[in-house]
Specification:
The chain is mainly beta. The chain folds into two domains: 39-57 and 164-261, Jelly Rolls (Sandwich); 59-161, Jelly Rolls, CATH 2.60.120.10. It contains one helix and 19 strands. It has one helix spanning 5-19; strands at 46-55, 63-72, 76-79, 85-91, 94-98, 103-107, 112-115, 120-124, 130-139, 152-157, 170-179, 188-190, 193-200, 203-207, 212-215, 220-223, 229-233, 239-248, 254-256. Strands 1-11-18-13-16 form a five-stranded antiparallel β-sheet, with no helix packed on it. A five-stranded antiparallel β-sheet has the order 7-4-9-2-10, with no helix packed on it. The longest helix is centred in the N-terminal third of the chain and has 15 residues, at 5-19.
Amino acid sequence: MRRFLPLLAAVLLAASCARGTPNNPLLGAGQSPTAFPIPDYVGIGKYQQLAEVTMPQTFGGVPFVTFVEVQQAKMTSFINQDGPGFVYAYQGTHDFARNDGERVFVVEQGKAVWSDGTDFEHRNPSDQDQRWYLISLRSITQRGAKLPYTAYRIAYQTEDLRTPPAVKKLVHQLGYITMDAGGRTSAHSHGGTESLYVLKGKVELKTNDGRKTQLGVGQGASVNPGVVMQLQVVGDEPVQILAYFVTPEGDPWQTNVQTLP
């Protein structure tokens, strides 16, 4: 009988370990009984790149960015007479066609594409009105100018931005930030300018010059190159943000840091 006691004890120990206990729960491979805290400078959210293009500069001098909201009626089309930029399909599917009527591509709702601003027709073949945005970098000589759309509004325009180096091409990137309540971006800086526009929710923008700015739906902000920044959700509503980056080619798009702004 004695020789079976060690074996029985081992079986009972294995069984109790397999079940776990409230004070000593069963954990999977790589799991820890103590959750590691996430540092405040680490982001909690999601960034989705919608589109990116590298282009030569089309003008010199001081630029600014506009987020133009266009209302396009059902079953209508018109020739593009505005400059280059990203077309973001906010409500409904957006069609592009050449001036001869040949269909080129379709932008699904929530997606974006770069338009070079020439030889294209904006089409809405559906039986529903559409809403889309043109997000673009413009010369300050265009500030206050009337734009060539039947129904539009300038949803947000930045202040004058820093002039990029004249000898470099520019990398244009449009992104979509989503964060739930309690969410935040990483503390970071950019090699170029960032311009953002809030589609849903409310955030606080902090920068390392000591500024704190709250932004709600329909509001925006811009951040110059090299400025350390962080966005944090305010309130319980999820956040959706369009972010437009203009970065001189060869400069870093983003640099995360381990200090808070």
